[in-house]
Amino acid sequence: MAQHIFSLEGKIALVTGASRGIGAAVARQLAELGATVAISYTASADKAQQVVDAIVAAGGKAAAFQADQADEAQVAKLIDGVAAKFGKLDILVNNAGVFETGSIIDSVDTSRFDRQIAINYGGVVAGIRAASRIMGEGGRIVSMSSGLAALAGGPGMADYIATKSAVEGYTKGAARELGPRGITVNVIRVGSVNTDMNPEDGPFSAWQKGANALGRFARADEIAALAAFLVSPAASFVNGAVLSADAGYSA
């Protein structure tokens, strides 16, 4: 029974920004549950292909697609390309994102912040809009937010926090709109995760470990497990939720 309610056999999934870190872990876990997985990347073609090769070597099905999540037209083309290759799209995991810090007062060049907004928020909205047009009953959309959206914790992160808070708000609205069509839309509020972008032995790791109740970083597969639940039949009544996987950082 447990295998049935978590099975993704016959499902087509797209995980954005999945050439490494959390996205790669999500892609691998969805494939293990039976989904055919498309992963997107912006520039790391080699790393994306390594993820695809690992999934195929383990007996799964996967393919990589290039797209810049900051470009709405490319996001729409990505969604259409996945559906054209595999015949449909059942699952979208909006994982692609960037993290930029800077002072509200001292930041003069805002180009990095503008791109952050375009990727972290604009790319998510574009993906949800495009995917919802082709998804049918049982469709699943999951986006990644941050524990910082609940508790800033320090200065210099206002722009980043704003993008994640916007994703959470959009998710609730989308859940209301798409729910009647049998499509669920949820958010995972992620805490500190050991990735190459934020290693558990990095310069800010001590503060991060001390800020949550477990006193450690998450493994990427721990976040992937929650994503796998949310896109599975087991989560059919979970909609418009913001679920924290932050070891109690926001508690």
UniProtKB/TrEMBL annotation:
Boundaries of every Ketoreductase domain copy: 11-191
Alphabetized Pfam families for the sequence: adh_short_C2
Coiled coil: none
SMART domains: PKS_KR
InterPro entries: KR_dom (IPR057326), NAD(P)-bd_dom_sf (IPR036291), SDR_fam (IPR002347)
Family as reported in the entry's similarity comment: Belongs to the short-chain dehydrogenases/reductases (SDR) family.
Official protein name in the record: SDR family oxidoreductase
